[in-house]
Amino acid sequence: MSQQPIPLPAPTDLDLNNIQGDILSGLPKKTQTYFFFQITDVTLFRSQLVKFIPLVKTVAGVLKDRKAIEDHKKKGDKTLITMVGVNIAFSHKGFVAMGIDDANLTSTEPNFELGQRQDAKNLGDKGTGDIPNFVPEWEPAFLQDIHAVILISGDSHRTVDKKLQEIKEIFGLAPSGNKPSIKEVTTIVGDVRPGKESGHEHFGFLDGISNPSVIGFDTSPIPGPKQVPAGVLVTGHDGDVGPTRPDWAVDGSYLTFRYLFQNVPEFNQFLKENPVPLPGLTPEEGSELLGARLVGRWKSGAPIDLTPFNDDPELADDPQRVNNFRFQAEATFAKMCPFASHIRKTLPRADLEDPPLNISIQKNRIARRGVQFGPELTKEEKQSGKTAHGRGLLFACYSTSIKNGFAFLQETWANNANFPPGGASTGIAPGLDPLIGQGNRMITGTDPNDPSSTLPLPEFIVPRGGEYFFSPSLKGLTETLAAAA
Ligand code: HEM
């Protein structure tokens, strides 16, 4: 399906017909398939790519799709419209395999050049050996080289599977008579959770509330963190701190993928066994409060910085308030929100931006586009408190720097017990990010009446794979990647 230019939503210097759709708008999805592969015949692949490119959904295409969804809903129709969105991204190994000089992408991005399998050691993933021979404890598929990934999002497995079949035929993997130019490494399917849990990750918390809004693109941002210049997410624009980009590397973005398994029954069991001992709360309420203090939001999405002791679904539903807080309510004691809560670790707002530090964190913002995978909890898992079926998050995020974005958040913030520095005035280390922090896992400040008490944390999230990619522009795909070798 080719993309027709549509009217731009606002004056912007971004060419919305040139940027892949997932980067700025997120491909609309109820389900999403990640197809990881190696390129086995470069010349053939680059010629077959010509036939694939018209399938790629641009930002303009996504905006058109979102408008169609809105119009459909307005008619009161509860069915889903058939819809599919395809994007593609290449790893450094992929560019090397294709004989394309990607020095522009690697020169200031060591994580991208190293590849995530080796970088996993720096991220804190468990494994054996040292870089460049590090072997993380990952699924075997992710221990292989991955050259590229094709993302296919849609309304149903049927729609997505049909598109995947069409793509496989283009690259000669299906019985089309075409010679194959690629080899599948692995295919992973993610699904938005059913019913009331839609939009919630597997621990039960509403996700996708706080993502950077982009100057000139998002015209009516909800109150919250400062808007970012487009170059934080799209290469070659104001805010891109990388080198000057050649034409083919403009209007792209780095895609970080992480295959993150969540120990959900164990997480629930931990909350049950460690309720926050606030006077007046039942054990169940104390457990719920602990969960909220680990994440920084209640399951509804309401931030505990604004509603510290009770969930407030009305606040959660109010776009004017749900992201409008800065963690500045308490100077000394983390009464409102523990310094190490997941959302405070990954976007510390006033902790860094305000005096005395006045540090800009615009370059550390990432656009998160993940989706859940795996089944809902079974009765047996709920009863035993033990995981029997793999489930978690297909974590995906975009930025124009992995070094300042994902890797920085993971290594310098999440895995660092002394971050954010606001806690220093109390002499109490905040601890690790209780969800994603790797290392000596503990957190302080979960008990508002005893901010120095330390809570040791089991591992709730286990990384089992991943890779770094670059998602090129349509022009880059057409004129450089698909050009005859
Ligand atoms: C299975 C793994 C993860 C789970 C269950 C999870 C869960 C959540 C939840 C529930 C929120 C709050 C919703 C929101 O503010 O949009 C959130 C926010 C966020 N997460 Fe995660 N997350 C995971 C992995 C990660 C990773 C690996 C990173 C990056 C290293 C990350 C970075 C962020 C950021 C930047 C925010 C928004 C903070 C803000 O703007 O206030 N998350 N996450």
UniProtKB/TrEMBL annotation:
> Which coenzymes or cofactors are required?
heme b
Keywords of this entry: Heme, Iron, Metal-binding, Oxidoreductase, Peroxidase, Signal
Q: Which GO terms describe its cellular component?
A: cytosol
**Lineage: superkingdom:** Eukaryota
Note the Pfam families from the entry. Answer: DyP_N, Dyp_perox_C
| Coiled-coil positions | none
Q: Which PROSITE patterns match?
A: DYP_PEROXIDASE
Domain DyP dimeric alpha+beta barrel: residue ranges = 18-194
In this chain the Dyp-type peroxidase C-terminal domain maps to 243-414
Protein family:
Belongs to the DyP-type peroxidase family.
Which PANTHER family does the protein's record reference?
DEFERROCHELATASE, DEFERROCHELATASE/PEROXIDASE
The identity of this protein, by name, is Peroxidase
Species whose genome carries this gene:
Lyophyllum shimeji
The gene name reads DyP1
